[in-house]
Amino acid sequence: MATLVIGNGEPINNRHACAACRHQRKKCHEDCLFAPHFPADKAEEYKAVHCVFDMSLMAKMFMGLNEYQREEAVKSIIWEAMLWQKDPVHGPLGQYKELEREYESLQEEFHQLGALLLKQWNIGTSSGNPSDAGIL
Cα–Cα distances in Å, from 19 out to 107, 122, 127, 136? Predict the structure, then answer.
């Protein structure tokens, strides 16, 4: 039987209770679903996730995933929980909207700079060819 290993490479049977078991004040067994993803040193992340998601539903969800999928799911769940903690009203949608505004602003700036550059090319040469103006 293979030895289970937690995130820091430490064998699971030589470790302290994971953050989930510690929070629930119970013994952390070798087959604990949360131990590889929420070791004892990730208690803050676990608390954020616990506040947002039902842990029994997460355990059921984990049962249908392979180890790689679980790791990706945990990353996503932690990200979402931390965003809900940061912005309890809008959560991930607030972050999405913020990134969308930044993208639109950068896109507008890009178009303005392109128009300015085109204008400079046209002023520098009568042919409108950038290489004639010494720009390229």
Answer: 43, 64, 69, 59
* Confidence (pTM): 0.65
* Banded pLDDT at 2 (limits 50, 70, 90): very low
pLDDT digits (tens, 9 = 90+) for 7-65: 555 544 555 789 999 988 889 988 888 899 899 899 999 999 999 888 888 888 888 89
- 67-86 and 91-124 are packed helices; what angle lies between their axes, rounded to 10 degrees? 90
Task: Pull the structure tokens for residue 45.
Answer: 């992340």
> 35 near 59, Cβ under 8 Å?
no
Question: Counting every residue, how long is the chain?
Answer: 136
Q: How many CB atoms lie within 10 A of CB 80?
A: 17
Distance set, CA 6 to CA 9, 31, 34 (Å): 6, 11, 10
Residues 6/29, Cβ–Cβ less than 8 Å: no
Helices H, strands E: what count in the chain? 5, 0
Single-letter amino acid code for the residue at 84: W
